[in-house]
Amino acid sequence: MTKNSAQLELSKEAMQAYGYQVVDAIVNHHCTQNDQLPVALGSREEMDSLFLEEAPEQGSNHEDVLQFVLEKVMTNSTNMSHPKSYSFVPGPSNYVSVMADALATGYNIFSGGWVASPAAAELEIITIQWLLKIFGFPSKKGGGIFTSGGSMANLTALTTARKVKCGQDFSKAVIYLSDQAHSSNIKAIRVLGFKKEQIRIIPTDIEFKFAVNKLKNCIAKDRLEGLQPFCLIATSGTTNTGTVDPLEELSKICKKEDIWFHIDGAYGAAAILSKSGKALMKGIEKADSLTVDPHKWFFQPYEMGCLLVRNHKHLSQTFTEKPEYLRDIEGNTSEINFYDHGIQLTRRFRALKFYMSIKTFGLKAFRKAISYNISLAEKVEDHLRGSQHWEVVFPATLAVINFRYHPIGKRYTAQQLDKINQYISEQVVASRKALLVTTVLHGQVVLRMCLINPRTTLNDVLDTLKLCEHFANALLAPSSVEN
Ligand SMILES: *Cc1c(COP(=O)(O)O)cnc(C)c1O
């Protein structure tokens, strides 16, 4: 079986056969997923009963291990690429990028420095250039870096903002974000060691946008107290409702107040590739830094986030950690060492999947997919508005729609409606037929669909709504389901 197990090797024939089995499993998964249940449920006890063991001193047959994993691990994982995975932000990956990841891992390319892999660094530079252009950032001065995800991109951004605006002393620094900002920002702020008193969570208006006047008042008050407003985090596509903050207006405030303008576009910013999305993203090009998450709406497999900055020097100023006297032997400064632009030294070759999928399908396919997603959510909204059973709580925005079961003519208290919708979600998830969970908007429990999977059809959604109605009926008219 093994060639020389102390070298951790398989024979050439075994490697090939093993590889084909893995590829067959992935392709089979992709092609049959519509017939499979998206949701996996399992308690710690159940998972322990499958997997708990000491690290085995003796190995086993590699094909047996693979079979065990395919049968027990993969089947017990929720499929975020499934057309009926509507919750959180789905991860509708694509096969070309999956194979690109296999290549990057198979060749184990070190994507930290230029010398280690000029081509990997060059592809990161080129694909970052593509993104800078898409988002209207300056192409010469601008820069960026691929990260593991949006959380790391936000952390990288806030670290940079603090370095550029505060230098060494951030004891008086104050940071502003809205109550709809993603939790990863608060995490990043905490990681950076800011105190609670340095964080301003600004309320949002009825549309969940930054309440600009409240923000202005807050900044003015902080100035009066001798504090240093240094960074504002806007969101282009809040995770809850898809709302885009008033970017133009916020950028003006930041400019006037000398505040770093960070935009968290982890899920929503990609919508700039569509016509209607582009209109909503007006002002995004004014950001000092922008988080985009290609493993969301650029259809890449996990993990891939991205931070773009308007001035690439801000990244190197923040993250370069070497004596000044070594700079001269670094060679050409255009030959970027990405370990000097972010937190990681050893990095996987993330740019490859982005590069290969865009080369293969073309940006046009991405534009089409994103436009399709946005219009699908609008069609779902139309359907809900035309139905007796449903109420649209927040209109379709950037492929997100919030709604709840609320039959016309029936009087339910707010609490009853919350309970009904909570129940629907719990039953749907328990059935494993769709991943559909609730969120809370204006104090109401609502159902939320994020429709960024280009393989989700209107029929998939109508099917899921029928399932929801079935559970609602069972709850509200118990006598009718008794037999
Ligand atoms: C998903 C998301 C994040 C976090 O990104 P990860 O890739 O999950 O780390 C940050 N901000 C927003 C707006 C998001 O939707």
In helices, the fraction of residues equals 40-55%
Q: What is the count of distinct domains?
A: 3
Largest sheet: 7 strands, mixed
End-to-end Cα distance: 58 Å
Shape: globular
Task: Write a structural description.
It contains 15 helices and 13 strands. It has 483 residues and is an alpha/beta fold. It has 3 domains: 2-35 and 40-77; 102-363, Type I PLP-dependent aspartate aminotransferase-like (Major domain) (Aspartate Aminotransferase, domain 2, 3-Layer(aba) Sandwich), CATH 3.40.640.10; 371-475, Aspartate Aminotransferase, domain 1, CATH 3.90.1150.170. Helix 4 packs antiparallel against helix 13, helix 6 packs across helix 7 (183-191) and helix 14 (414-431) crosses helix 15 (458-476). The longest helix has 35 residues, at 351-385. The radius of gyration is 25 Å and the shape is globular. Bound molecules: pyridoxal-5'-phosphate (PLP).
